[in-house]
Each structure stands twice: as structure tokens, then as C-alpha cells.
Design a protein that fits this description.
Length: 417
Amino acid sequence: MHATRLSNGLRVLTEPMAHLRSVTMGIWVETGSRHEAPSQGGISHFLEHLFFKGTTRRTAAQIAEEIDAVGGVLNAFTTKEYTCFYAKVLPEHLGIATDLLADLFTASRFAHEEIERERSVVLQEISQLEDTPDDWIHDLFSLDFWAGHALARPIAGTVETVQGLERRQLLDFLAARYRPDRVIIAAAGGVDHARLVASVERAFECLEGTSAAFHDSAPAPRRVVHVHEKPLEQLHVCLGVPGLAQSDPERYAAHLLNTAFGGGMSSRLFQEIREKRGKAYNVYSFLSSFRDTGYVGVYVGTSAAWVQEVIDVVRTEAQRLARDGLAPAELERAKEQVKGSLLLGLETSDSHMSRIAKNEIYHGRDISIDEVRGMIDAVTHDDIVRVAERLLGQGIVACTVLGNLQGRRLDDEVLGL
């Protein structure tokens, strides 16, 4: 990996990979929904949409035509802590991709008529999420678990906040957060570092200044059971406990623990709840980690008649892991599964581009694949027991349910909180 910091503060990272027949370049901005005031909910995501709606040089249609003309991909996404705009093309078209991304990022018009048109699109996106309960449950869980904190709020905002966003607010947020000291240009695949640095320096020389300071603290988790009633065929359940930050030294052990707990078809939760009992089609555990905090979650879609049994199984398996850790064969299987998934997930230029950018955001340095594999292999049984006790030994802290309980009672007592 090569890294250069330009005179205006912008960082350029590349991972040249001559064997790949593509190159992906991304503009990463260290800002997301976490950095929004309550009244600004969804502003980062709204801005992400608006960058594609025309610049001083190109209309929205011309932007789409240029990337299509070279068979490329141009897209963006917003998270709670960063926003990314990226293009994937053949190496010979990297110059076109660089020019397009720079134009979007430095010369978007944010015309009034486009703001109003795209506002309707974002509102439809929010409505679509609420019609997808197995996705919506995760937003509801965050709202319940970290109530009152910016990390709890949905990335897309709410109907009320999005309707209230005005052009002046959008431009002020851009001026405060989209400064070169918070911007990373990352590229992987068929790329030459020196050439890209020269291109980026020319294309982004107009960016200047520093971003406004943003101070916040980690959210405090709430012990809560919250049922969101909705007429659905299934109950969607999310259970959680406080977890780890992105840079926590025990993150490798936590990933192995999660893999064995509910991270695949051979995991304890999948085998016990789906295969042995037939009480769910979809069940899994996951780690959700941020700069300074995180949580371990379990999702399951089941029926009202089986919800208590399913919760009991999750609690029992969590207690077993906190008490006994993993058997030697189970630990080795988890290590090979995590390493295999890691390597299989890095077969494309976009995945490598994301890897180097996220390493810069959360660790401030490149963490090589060999280093990650070595840290995974170094995890011992004692490490697993320690992190299992730390994460799962506290018992289930919070539960969010979406659906129709059909008159059944679900509260702290039945959850064992």
C-alpha cells in the first residue's frame, strides 16, 4: 500500500494490483449520520444523493452517460461514520473516473429543483425500509439500545427531518464537514500511485480549509425490552449486548467467537434454532462496531408462538460460551472460516479499495492481510473465554421485537434481564 498526503491535507492511498483487470477509486469522507444534529437527521445521506444530480460541467444524464460509455460503475453509500463515492472501471479509463468523481465532489450545483426532486426519492427510500422488516428491525434496535445518541438515529433520517432540510443547511454542512483534512482518496487494482497522486492533486486543488471540530462521547446502552407492534406474518427479533470498538485489541477473538455463535450454517444458533428445532428460517449473530463503541447482536425471524423458546436458546448458548469458550476443533474451524471469508471477499478491486480506506479511518495505518491472518491464528482458547465473558457474560441487555405478539407477554422478567 502506498500513501501520500497532499499539501491541502487530502490523503491518497493506493494498492496497485497488476493482475486485476479493473481499478476502483473512492472518495471517502469521514462524516456520516453520527455527525449530524437531531434536526439534521439524514443530511449526509441526502447530500450523497445530490452529488449525482448535476455539476457546473455536466447534467445528471451526462454523468450517467459517461460512466456507462466505458462500462463502469459509479455509486455511493453513507454509513454512520463515513460517506463514500466511488467508480469502478477498466484501468485505461481511470482518468475518466477521476475527472467524474472530482467534478461531482467539487462542482455539484445542488439546484433547488433537484433538491426537491431528490427529497421525494429519499422519502420513498425511507418508506421502503419500513416495508422491509428484517432490515428495519436493526434501525429500531439501535434507537432502543442507544436512545438519545446520534449513533442510534437511522442513516437516512426520518420523514420529518428530511422534509425539513433546506438548501442553506445542506451547503453549511458541506462547508463544515467536507474539508480535505477529512477526505481520503483510495484506489486499488490497475493503478499507478505516482500518476494518481498527480491527477488528484490537479483535480482536487480547489479543496481547502479544515473541517469543523466535532466532539461526542460513546453512547450508554439501555437495558430495555421494546415491542413495536405491526401486523406481520413473522416476529422479527433483535437481541444485543455492548460490544467492541473497531480498534479494540480483542476484535480478532470477538470475530471468531461471533462466527461460532451465529456466523454461519455450522454455528451454534443456526444448528440449534433452525436445523434441530425448525423454529426459524433466518437466524444469525453479528458484530456492529464503530470508532469508540459497538454491540453484539442476534437477529431471528420466528413466530409469536416460538419467540420465547428462541430467546431462551440464544440466552443459553450465550451463557455456555461465556462459561466454557470454544472446543479446540470449534475454534480451529472458526479460524479457517474467518480467514477463508476474508480472502474470498478480497477478490475484487472494490473490496481492496474499501479495506485500505477503512484501515486509514479506524487505525491510521495499513493492516496487511498477512498481519490479520497472523492475529487470527494467534487467538487462544483463553482469549476466547476472556472475550466471551466480557461480551456475553452480562446476559442479554436489550431486546427489540417487530411484529404481532398475538397477545403474548414479553418483558424484562421473561427475558431474564
